[in-house]
Amino acid sequence: MQHLQNLFLENFTIPQEYILLFEQIHLLGMKDKEEEFNTLHKQLMKQRVQAVEKALDSILKGAEIPPRLSEAMRYSLLAGGKRLRPTLCLSMAKLCAHARRDKNLWVLAMPFAIALEMIHTYSLIHDDLPAMDNDDLRRGKPTCHKAFNEATAILAGDGLLSDAFWFMTDCNLPAQNVVQSIQLIAQAIGSEGMVGGQMLDMEAEERKLNLEELSVLNAKKTGALLQCACLSGATLMGASDIMKRYIKEYGTSMGIAFQIIDDVLDVIGDAALLGKNTGSDEANQKSTWVSLLGIEESKKKAVEYCSTANQALQELAKNEPLLDKGEQYFLQKTTSDMAYRVY
């Protein structure tokens, strides 16, 4: 575990150069620095994703797991992806740990962050099943039930979900913080959250939703896990109520923006680059932001929600001057870049 903690400490470091470039661009208007800043941000993001990948590769190798089940779980878990949820969890923990005057405390949230990716992967395996979305491509590879079989895929998802909660308890942090964070996750992925959202999504097929109904569906199916990835990272660090309020606002806006972007890319995206089939929303006659608002208006909405998320971070910084400034800037840049994936 210690070697993994050292890996994260090294790869999540924000150099002073990054802070300087951000302030030169955003406070002094030095647009000539943008290319250099973009390159550095991509490099740091790649380092973080690689750290998450190495941690994921180190788990689920126990001799007690039946080999075929272990193979199926690892097949889906290590298939790639943006690793957004664990990265957000650790970023928020890092942001808040600085305010708690223990700048390296955040790394103890690492098992919890890894568990979030296990839960996300479980949800993808089950969403892809024939009884659900019936997809045959995920992250550029055959879906789990195509690579193995339907029964094995169901068990692989079950295993990832169950084992995730064991990982969450392996955080050497105050028990109250860990329990509160686990409660957040359980609610976000259960019948009131992600599972409930999937039910609403299935019921909505071949029926046109209005924007309010679609927003509720998206908030449950996609937004809940993204929101609690942010909120749990803060909660693990013992963040104050005011800090958690702004972080919840950030996570909520990020969740909506993420779904809007996903809807747009399902229409205009390249399946080879996205790693999954496009056009499935229209084929399944699903109500989406694009079907209700059109492509251009949906793009604008994505930018608006990302901007709202960043405003929440800025308000948080005003109320908590001891926040990790580099991490704040990194989150703001990440959010802004996400919005412009549709352009």
How would you portray this structure in words?
The chain has 343 residues and is an all-alpha fold. Helix content is 71%, strand content 1%. It contains 17 helices and two strands. The chain has helices at 2-11, 16-26, 34-57, 67-77, 84-99, 110-127, 144-147, 150-168, 175-189, 194-203, 211-236, 241-268, 271-274, 280-283, 289-293, 295-319, 325-339, and strands at 137-138, 141-142. Strands 1-2 form a two-stranded antiparallel sheet. Helix 5 (84-99) packs antiparallel against helix 17 (325-339) and helix 6 (110-127) packs antiparallel against helix 8 (150-168). The relative contact order is 0.12. The mean pLDDT is 90.
Rg for CA atoms: 20 Å
Unreliable segments (pLDDT under 50, ≥5 consecutive)?
none
The percent range for strand residues is under 5%
Give the termini distance in whole angstroms.
41 Å
Number of strands: 2
Reading the helices and strands in chain order gives HHHHHHEEHHHHHHHHHHH
Q: What's the overall average pLDDT, rounded?
A: 90
**In what order do the strands lie side by side in the largest sheet?**
1-2
Helix fraction by DSSP (H/I, runs of at least 4): over 70%
Give the overall shape, derived from the CA principal axes.
Answer: globular
The class by helix and strand makeup works out as mainly alpha
Tally of alpha and pi helices: 17
Largest sheet: 2 strands, antiparallel
